[in-house]
Each structure stands twice: as structure tokens, then as C-alpha cells.
Design brief:
The complex is a heterodimer.
Chain A: E1 9-10, H1 21-27, H2 44-63, E2 71-74, H3 77-92, E3 98-102, H4 107-118, E4 122-126, H5 136-142, E5 147-151, H6 165-175, E6 178-182, E7 201-205, E8 216-220, H7 248-286, E9 290-292, E10 303-308, H8 313-319, E11 323-324, E12 326-327, H9 340-344, H10 349-352, E13 355-359, H11 366-385, H12 388-394
Parallel strand pairs in A: 1-11, 3-4, 3-5, 5-6, 6-7
Antiparallel strand pairs in A: 2-8, 7-8, 9-10, 10-13, 12-13
Chain B: H1 5-12, E1 27-34, E2 39-47, E3 53-61, H2 64-77, H3 82-86, H4 90-97, H5 104-124
Helix pairs in contact in B: 1-2, 2-5, 4-5
The chains are: A alpha/beta, B alpha+beta.
GO cellular component, one term (chain B): cytoplasm
Function (chain B): A scaffold on which IscS assembles Fe-S clusters. It is likely that Fe-S cluster coordination is flexible as the role of this complex is to build and then hand off Fe-S clusters.
Organism (chain B): Thalassospira alkalitolerans
């Protein structure tokens, strides 16, 4: 395991993305000669840094159709989600102690909700349909006079499905409820406009869109105004919503990454959609019992989440060491539970154990995908030959008819 | 996860993969685990009239540790008497493959599988005393 061979093919773009070299170039001067504290008001070092921060703020605002005054910089989407949910509930929660979210949200949203529950707030967790999307009627029915905020992610990190954000925004606005959306996986991947989609708060992460790690933002609407209670207090930076010295180089990178993503989105999406569909087709042509998890249409171009039935995900990953992908299998997690997202879709537990997330992005080539498809398919075939479940399926035995001793 | 060389060797070059005719009286079959839990092992033994395991085969759906545990146990039981094979402990498998703590259940499954195969063989051959095994 320790010998270093050629670098594995990276197909895990939902986990993180490499920082674009153009982004790195933009950042570098802000580590060395332009190192000032953007909050220093007394000299040119500070002014120079502050100018750079404000350019970045504009770039981030622009990609979601917001005003730069509505962008609060944070350390990343996890912090943004914490600030959005806890910040809103703590401000409005006395009168409106109810929050609505979805079972397939990212752990940081679900965990924030759980903490709020422990403090006495009420939380409704909406389920999802088989395709991973929420049922809008269920959402409408869940909203009460006590609901302060609805939080639904734009794009799911595991299965890549795109929620009907605009429709959700309209429902929320009509009912006088704030709409927060975790768009860590959406910004730069799909067109977003906070006014058109009636979004009140949005979480953004830089490292998912070819920017640096350790920085993100929370969009907080000014008209009508949304108030949040700061979760990190101190010098009162970011209009008092998030204290702490702003990391100028990271912000410059974040802004540049947004600018590039916005300029190249249409072209990039067309290329990735073609690669994604090609990959899925090649798997389906070569292998039987290949299932796509999550809606096939309402899906970002960079995500494939596939179950290769009868082959356990971790053993598959062990056989494709030269390919960096993610698995929904239990065995890759400390908890030994299969992916809660796949379970929420109603994917059979055994299929959840067989899933692989293939994430493609800006630097993925067709050659890399061809190599990955061949390697994965060969390994699936080898492991199926070794799988008692595959053998039973070939003999026509329904594995559901067997009484398994769950352990 | 970082695995031992022995484990990786068994995963990459599994010994005794295959199936035997489960209807044959000299063959005992153990099928343990559950698909929903992410691992299923099928272990088969072929036993001589003298009660010696002359061959063993397995098929496993599961993680690398589960595949390696079942591969290893098929190697170990060959040439052993039923009693000797039935006394193999999961801890021996776990130690041999240096299984990480979260993978200990894979070795338990392998122990269950051999016990189930022995029990199946004994039942078929009228040796009654069905022991352990799920």
C-alpha cells in the first residue's frame, strides 16, 4: 500500500476540486508583498488588502446575482450552514421556533438542526422521492405559522440531484418563511440568481469550485432584511455577523474562482454532460445490473452515483487503487452504516453497499474516463465471479426470498 | 484504510474461489451474513469418509477484509478434521490478517461460515449433533 506509483486518476470532484492555476496566480501576491490586514484603516497595506477583498466580494456576489453587501465571508460551507440555521433560529426562534429541512442534506445542516432540537426548537425533516427530489406538496404542508426557515440544498453532494430551488423559493416567499439553500455543490455548476429564485440565505464553498480550501460565504438578503445572530463574535467584522480577520489571499482566490466559473459555466457544462453520459452508457453497455442513483435529468453534469449490484463498494475500491472515487458503502465509513442519502431514496440496503460516486470536473479527460471505465468494469466482473449473490442471481434465485441472519 | 500485505494478497489473489455441488452428500455448505449488512459468505467443504476436509471453496460478497478472511479460512481447513476445523477461532484469522478493529466482524463471519458448513455436512450425513452455527 505504501509504494508510490503514478498518481491515481482523480474522479472525486464532489469531495474537492484542485485549485485552478489561474486562481493560485491571483492569490500569490497576497501572501507576500500585499500581505496587509484588510481591516487596517491607517495605511496603504490595509487599503490594498481591503480593495482586493471588495473585488472578491463583488465576484462572489455576481455569480449568484446578489449585491456585494449581502456577502458574508466565512471559513466554508459548514460554517455558513451553521450560521444560517443557528443564526436565524436564535434571532427569530422565540416567535417562530420551527425549522424545516430534508433528510438528504449535508451532515453539517442535519447536525446544526439536531443541536437546535436539543435546545428546544422544532425541526421537520422532509423525506425525498425515489429520484432524490423533495415533494413540494409535502413542503407546503409542513410550513406552519411557527416556521422561521426552510433549508433545502441546491445540489446533493452524493447523488448530484438538483432540487427545484425556484419553486421552493416561491413557496417560502408566499408563506413569509425564509429560504436557506446550501449551494456548496451548486455554485459554478448551475446558473443561480438569488432574486429570481427568491433565496434569502445561501451557503457557498470555494474549494468545490476550483478555489482554495478554508473559505466560503453566506449570502444574507438585505431586502427584505434577514437577521442572524453571530456564531463567532469579536471585532465585529462582516457587519457584525462574523468576526475575525479576513484571509485576503483565500478571498482573492475565491473571487477569481467564481469569476472563472461564471465565464466558463455554459461551455464546461456541455463538455461534462457529454462525458458523464458517455461514461454511463459505456458502463451499461458492458455490464448488467448497473443502476444510477438519483434523478437522471435533474442532475449536475459532474456527478454519477452508480450501484454495481452484487459487488460491495469497498472491495471494488480496493481493486481500483489507481482511481480516486468515493463509495456509499458502509465499509468505507467508521459507522459501518451505508449512505443515509441512498437509504433515504429507498435504495435497497444491499444496493447502497454497492455504490460508487464518480465525480468529474474541469481537468477530467476522456482518456482518463476510458481508463477508469475499463478498470472498474474489469474489477466488477472479477468480484462478481467471487460473489455468492451474483451466483444466486444467475441461478434465478431471488436474494430477497432468503432469510438472512442480520448481524 | 491501511491493510496488511497478507490481507491484500488474499484480496488480490484469493485462494479457492468457486462452488461445489451442494446436493452432494460429501459436501457441506455454510451461507452466512446478509446482503443488507454488506457481507455474505458462502463456504463449502468436501469431506472424505474418514472425516477429513479434502477441499474447500468460497464465494464472498463483502469488503476486502471479508474476502481475505474467507480465502484464508479455506486454506486453513484443508486437510483438517471436522473437529479441528470447527475449533478455528475468529481471533486467529484477525491476527493473521492484522484486521483493523472495525473489520473484526469479517473474521467472525468466517468462523460462522465454517461452523455452518460443518453443521450442514453433519446433518446431511446423519451425524445429528448440530452445533453452534447460524
Amino acid at each position: 500500500m505504501n509504494e508510490l506509483k503514478a498518481k491515481p486518476i482523480y474522479l472525486d470532484y464532489q469531495a474537492t476540486t484542485p485549485t485552478d492555476p489561474r486562481v493560485v496566480d491571483a492569490m500569490l501576491p497576497y501572501f507576500t508583498e500585499k500581505f496587509g490586514n484588510p481591516h487596517s484603516r491607517n495605511h496603504s497595506y490595509g487599503w490594498e488588502a481591503e480593495d482586493a477583498v471588495e473585488v472578491a466580494r463583488d465576484q462572489v456576489a455576481k455569480i449568484i446575482g446578489a449585491s456585494s453587501k449581502e456577502i458574508i465571508f466565512t471559513s466554508g460551507a459548514t460554517e455558513s450552514n451553521n450560521l444560517a440555521l443557528k443564526g436565524v433560529m436564535k434571532f427569530y426562534g422565540k416567535k417562530k421556533p420551527h425549522l424545516i429541512t430534508v433528510v438528504t442534506e449535508h451532515k453539517c445542516v442535519l447536525d446544526s438542526a439536531r443541536h437546535l432540537e436539543q435546545e428546544g426548537y422544532k425541526v421537520t425533516y422532509l423525506g425525498v422521492k425515489e429520484n432524490g427530489l423533495i415533494d413540494l406538496d409535502q413542503l407546503k404542508a409542513a410550513i406552519t405559522d411557527e416556521t422561521a426557515i426552510v433549508s433545502v440544498m441546491g445540489v446533493n453532494n452524493e447523488i448530484g440531484v438538483i432540487q427545484p430551488i425556484k419553486a421552493i423559493g416561491e413557496i417560502c416567499r408566499e408563506r413569509g418563511v425564509f429560504f436557506h439553500t446550501d449551494c456548496a455543490q451548486a455554485v459554478g455548476k448551475i446558473p443561480l440568481d438569488v432574486d429570481d429564485m427568491k433565496i434569502d440565505l445561501m451557503s457557498i464553498s470555494a474549494h468545490k469550485l476550483y478555489g482554495p480550501k478554508g473559505v466560503g460565504a453566506l449570502y444574507v438578503r438585505r431586502r427584505p432584511r434577514v437577521r442572524v445572530i453571530a456564531q463567532i463574535t469579536g471585532g465585529g467584522q462582516e457587519r457584525g455577523m462574523r468576526s475575525g480577520t479576513l484571509p485576503t489571499p483565500l478571498l482573492v482566490g475565491f473571487g477569481k474562482a467564481c469569476e472563472i466559473a461564471q465565464n466558463e459555466m455554459a461551455e464546461e457544462n456541455a463538455r461534462l454532460t457529454e462525458l458523464r453520459d458517455y461514461t454511463l452508457k459505456r458502463f451499461r453497455d458492458r455490464l448488467d445490473d448497473v443502476f444510477l442513483n438519483g434523478d437522471e435529468e435533474q442532475r449536475v453534469s459532474g456527478n454519477l452515483n452508480i450501484s454495481f449490484a452484487y459487488v460491495e463498494g469497498e472491495s471494488l475500491q480496493m481493486g481500483i487503487k489507481n482511481i480516486a472515487v468515493s463509495s456509499g458503502s458502509a465499509c468505507t465509513s467508521a459507522s459501518l452504516e451505508p449512505s443515509y442519502v441512498l437509504r433515504a431514496l429507498g435504495v435497497d440496503e444491499e444496493l447502497a453497499h454497492t455504490s460508487l460516486r464518480i465525480g468529474i470536473g474541469r481537468f477530467t479527460t476522456k482518456e482518463e474516463l476510458d481508463e477508469a471505465i475499463d478498470a472498474i468494469s474489469t474489477e466488477v466482473e472479477r468480484l462478481r465471479e467471487m460473489s455468492p449473490l451474483w451466483e444466486m442471481a444467475q441461478e434465478g434465485i431471488d436474494i430477497k426470498s432468503i432469510e438472512w441472519a442480520e448481524h | 484504510m491501511a491493510y496488511s500485505e497478507k490481507l491484500i494478497d488474499h484480496y488480490e489473489n484469493p485462494r479457492n474461489v468457486g462452488s461445489m455441488d451442494k446436493n452432494e452428500t460429501s459436501v457441506g455448505t455454510g451461507l452466512v451474513g446478509a446482503p443488507a449488512c454488506g457481507d455474505v459468505m458462502k463456504l463449502q467443504i468436501k469431506v472424505t469418509p474418514e472425516g477429513i476436509i479434502e477441499d474447500a471453496k468460497f464465494k464472498t460478497f463483502g469488503c476486502g477484509s471479508a474476502i481475505a478472511s474467507s480465502s484464508l479460512i479455506t486454506e486453513w481447513v484443508k486437510g483438517k478434521s471436522l473437529d479441528e476445523a470447527g475449533s478455528i477461532k475468529n481471533s486467529q484469522i484477525a491476527a493473521e490478517l492484522a484486521l483493523p478493529p472495525v473489520k473484526i466482524h469479517c473474521s467472525i463471519l468466517a468462523e460462522d461460515a465454517i461452523k455452518a458448513a460443518i453443521s450442514d455436512y453433519k446433518t446431511k450425513n446423519g451425524q445429528g449433533e448440530v452445533e453452534a452455527a447460524e
